[in-house]
Design goal:
about 70% helix, Arc Repressor Mutant, subunit A, Tscrpt_reg_PadR_C, 8 helices, about 5% strand, WH-like_DNA-bd_sf, elongated, about 180 residues, WH_DNA-bd_sf, mainly alpha, PadR family transcriptional regulator, 3-stranded antiparallel sheet
Length: about 180
Amino acid sequence: MARASQTHMAVLGALSIEPMTGYALRETIRDVLGHFWSESFGQIYPALAELERLELVERSGSAKAGSSTFTITAAGRRRLRELLGEPVQVAPARNGLMLRLFFGRTLGVEACRELVVAAEADAQRRLLEFDALAVQVAGETQHAADEPFWQLTISAGRHSAQATIAWAQECLAALDEVAR
């Protein structure tokens, strides 16, 4: 699936939940989808313009930037369903931490240890955020039909954070052995 199609899927998906301005859409993608999906803010407004041209979204309100509200159309809902039905494209990993650890002999054990400790702390912080997010989503009555599906993504984030914590503890023990 092309990058533009994935951007369209994110935009149409967010608008399928509720109409919103371009600014609110940017915030939603960052704050709500952000734990599993990132989107370049520079792609959102061009995607909205393209989706409007294709009659997959409608604009209402002022034409002034940021004050128009976008709503998904019936054709947009059909296109969203098509996009969601396409095979998932797995992007090649680009993990700066793994790149540094791979060359850890050059970096040094203590620097590797600091990187792993920071990764563990970040995973602990994310785990707390996911726990809070799960409670928040469970309390939302406006989107009750979406809640079980949203919880699936939160669960994936929690599992990922827990795995990172376990991995970090294993790495620290291995780095202790290397240092000896």
